[in-house]
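pipeline: protein-struct stage 2 | run 1193 | Phenylpyruvate tautomerase PptA (4-oxalocrotonate tautomerase family)
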Amino acid sequence: MPVAKIEVRRSRAPHEVQALIEAVYQAQREALKVPEDDRQIRYIEHRPEHFAVPPGRSENYTFVEILLFPGRSLDAKRRLYASIVRRFGELGIAPHDVFIVLQEPALENWGIRGGQAAVDVELGFELKV
């Protein structure tokens, strides 16, 4: 049950926004084996003066932050990074303009399914991928 944010500093047409969301979703499905329809992805567009771009990056600079349950292997994470970068590339975003950060709060720090700690819930999918 990853929760993802895509943050950008320029406007895009609605169909482009949906394509970026879909790219992150499909990368999660492919690399992390998340269940179908597990799609918690937000797209946040900042005004340029509110989002500094690192030197050498373009106006397409895109920051992706994903919170996920702990347990995925380093190889799964590498597959996720590569899949997001490849899919964004197909949408016109250069690899050097993509920055991805994963955060893995412990299961007891997730309140799900009516306020239960995730550690107390049968998740219904494998975390060790």
